[in-house]
């Protein structure tokens, strides 16, 4: 099943993407259009990995629960990934390197098939590139407990269900509330930039009308 899905998705990723139109569906009410300004020169660069893999005859992807540290994204759920570093030849390499460092998936096991649309994250001043890849077997996860509190394995079929999408007020860094849509993944609240990038993936899956 994963091979057929990957072939179709790779073909679709090579065409114009829905971009901001799909991302905006999961944008917090209080957010601004600055999120879609991809021409800024004063940003930090990051790469995250949308990693597809087979499990229980379904297609899954991993998300990570961050530790609840005193930072912009403390406690949030995100894709494996991180900031571009000197020595990284490109953001694809960044995403693969960070995925290995955080959840232990070997770079050589991942086949990259394209990218989703970049997204600017104003609070941390990052422009993030979501790299899409797949592994044709169940990954040998090896979680770095310093960087990752928990691994969250998400079936793609769950993400595309309308009932998974919800909305509520979310307390951010203990200071203020945002009214935000989110994906309810078995009680985990997936919102913000991660949800916005996932929203584009969901839009593509629905467009391809695949029975997951």
UniProtKB/TrEMBL annotation:
Q: Which cofactor does it need?
A: Mg(2+); Mn(2+)
- Do the record's keywords include Secreted? no
Recite the UniProt keywords alphabetically: Hydrolase, Magnesium, Manganese, Metal-binding
Q: Which ranges carry the Nudix hydrolase domain?
A: 43-177
CDD domains, sorted? NUDIX_CoAse_Nudt7
PANTHER family, sorted: MITOCHONDRIAL COENZYME A DIPHOSPHATASE NUDT8, NUDIX HYDROLASE
Q: What is this protein called?
A: CoA pyrophosphatase
Q: Which organism is it from?
A: Fulvivirga kasyanovii
């Amino acid at each position: 099943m994963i091979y057929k899905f990957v072939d179709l998705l790779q073909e679709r990723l090579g065409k114009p993407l829905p971009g901001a139109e799909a991302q905006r569906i999961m944008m917090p009410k209080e957010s601004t259009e600055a999120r879609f300004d991809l021409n800024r020169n004063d940003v930090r660069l990051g790469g995250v990995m949308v990693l597809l893999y087979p499990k229980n005859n379904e297609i899954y992807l991993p998300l990570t629960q961050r530790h609840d540290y005193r930072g912009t994204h403390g406690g949030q759920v995100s894709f494996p990934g991180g900031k571009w570093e000197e020595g990284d030849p490109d953001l694809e390499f960044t995403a693969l390197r960070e995925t290995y460092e955080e959840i232990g998936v070997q770079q050589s096991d991942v086949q990259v098939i394209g990218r989703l649309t970049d997204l600017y994250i104003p609070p941390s001043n990052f422009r993030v590139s979501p790299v899409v890849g797949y592994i044709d077997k169940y990954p040998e996860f090896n979680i770095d407990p310093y960087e990752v509190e928990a691994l969250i394995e998400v079936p793609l079929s769950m993400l595309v269900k309308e009932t998974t999408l919800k909305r509520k007020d979310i307390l951010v860094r203990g200071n203020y509330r945002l009214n935000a849509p989110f994906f309810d993944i078995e009680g985990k609240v997936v919102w913000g930039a991660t949800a916005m990038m996932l929203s584009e993936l969901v839009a593509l899956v629905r467009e391809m009308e695949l029975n997951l």
